[in-house]
Design brief:
CATH superfamily: Rhomboid-like
Radius of gyration: 16 Å
CATH architecture: Up-down Bundle
Order of helices and strands: HHEHHHHEHEEHH
Number of strands: 4
Strand order of the largest sheet: 1-2
Distance between the termini: 21 Å
CATH topology: Rhomboid-like fold
Structural class: mainly alpha
CATH class: Mainly Alpha
Oligomer: single chain
Shape: globular
Length: 198
């Protein structure tokens, strides 16, 4: 297990354990609260929430799925890029995921409240994996269809866009996932100087 990927996994597990011990105070303080009528007030009042939301999760299953994907894709990205660039990609995706969800909620006027989960960061790492290893085969759990990593990223992005626009799967921050892809792409495209292997 590469160091940065392992550290992110440990940090997310610790965040979830703290939630179990100190709810609801922890979510109130560290989730990203989005008010569609005043989207920037909470950001100015508690800017740390733009990052800390990503270390909180709604359930053990939510946590497990995110950490499985982080391990599956982040480890290979880190081995190729090194810890620094991988971490920058992850946290850039966390930030762009937050920004995308804030914009979506503000425009639609729906979906306000707390946002939690590492999915934005994970989607950014997934994008990097798909660009770095485009022909790597991925076998989905459901449905069990093997496909190339690049194809998987495009298909998943299209599904997230459809679900976000149609409002399907309410309670899931689909635009945060799409925003995470943007953050990952930006580091893939412009972050070469951060790589330990360049």
């Amino acid at each position: 297990m590469p160091a940065a990927t392992g550290a992110l996994i440990i940090a997310n597990v610790l965040g979830f354990l703290l939630q179990l011990a100190f709810e609801p105070a922890l979510t109130e303080a560290f989730a990203l609260w989005i008010d569609p009528d005043a989207p920037f007030e909470q950001i100015f009042a508690a800017p740390w929430q733009l990052v800390t939301y990503s270390f909180l999760h709604g359930s053990g299953l939510h946590l497990a799925l995110n950490l499985f994907a982080l391990w599956m894709f982040g480890a290979d990205v880190e081995r190729l890029w090194g810890a620094r660039r991988m971490l920058v990609a992850y946290f850039a995706a966390v930030l762009t995921g937050a920004a995308a969800q804030i914009i979506a909620v503000t425009v639609s006027g729906d979906g306000g409240g707390p946002m939690i989960g590492a999915s934005g960061g994970v989607f950014g790492v997934l994008l990097c994996f798909g660009m770095l290893f485009p022909k790597r085969r991925i076998l989905l759990l459901f449905p069990p269809i093997p496909m190339q990593a690049r194809t998987f990223v495009f298909v998943y992005a299209a599904i997230e866009l459809f679900l976000g626009v149609t409002g399907t799967a309410e309670g899931v921050a689909h635009f945060a996932h799409l925003g995470g892809l943007v953050g990952g792409w930006l580091v893939y495209r412009y972050g070469a100087s951060l790589s330990a292997n360049t």
